[in-house]
Every structure is written in C-alpha cells, then in structure tokens.
C-alpha cells in the first residue's frame, strides 16, 4: 500500500507531550476516516527543532512528503493538523516553523 503522507513526531523530550501528540493524531486520523490513505503517526527521535519541542511548549513533528515541520504542537492541535493539512492540503500556519 502506498500512503500519501507520513507523520513523525519527536518523542525525545523528557515530558510525555510527544507521545500524547502521537496518540491524539492516531485517534484523529481514524476518526476522520483517513487510516487507509495515511501512514499512522510514528514516534521518532530529535528533529533538531528542540526550542519548539520541550516541556511546556509541545512537540515538533514533520509531515512528508512536503517536509513541513510543525513546532509547539499539543495534543489539542491534532484535529487541525489532520483536517487542514492531511485532508485539505493546507498547512496550519500558526504551528508551521520556517
Ligand atoms: S527534542 Fe524534539 S526536536 Fe529536539
């Protein structure tokens, strides 16, 4: 099966936020019926965006094939990322890093 997108979430920070973001993304992908089009959100190591990925800030994540990097992502941001980016192809500007 060929997926349209792959998501990798940094879980390298000391808090649980990255793992919570992964769980929230998986739940939202399933809820929006995209499981067959998208690879699930996968935990990964440091994405070199550590100032946007620490306790109190949230997690960094990257979406391929675009290579869009989001920072300060909280579990509550999962619906917007899945709906806007993955479903409609629009980046979520407020979370997008340069
Ligand atoms: S610790 Fe998450 S990007 Fe570096």
UniProtKB/TrEMBL annotation:
SUPFAM superfamilies: Thioredoxin-like. InterPro entries: Thioredoxin-like_sf (IPR036249). This is (2Fe-2S) ferredoxin domain-containing protein. It comes from the Bacteria.
């Amino acid at each position: 099966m060929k997926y349209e997108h792959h998501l990798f979430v940094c879980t390298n920070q000391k808090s649980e936020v990255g793992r919570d973001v992964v769980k929230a993304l998986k739940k939202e992908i399933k809820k929006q019926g995209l499981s067959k089009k998208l690879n699930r959100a996968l935990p990964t190591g440091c994405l070199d965006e550590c100032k946007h990925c620490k306790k109190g800030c949230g997690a960094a994540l990257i979406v391929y094939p675009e290579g869009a990097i989001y920072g300060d992502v909280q579990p509550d941001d999962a619906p917007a990322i899945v709906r806007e980016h993955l479903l409609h192809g629009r980046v979520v500007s407020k979370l997008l890093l340069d």
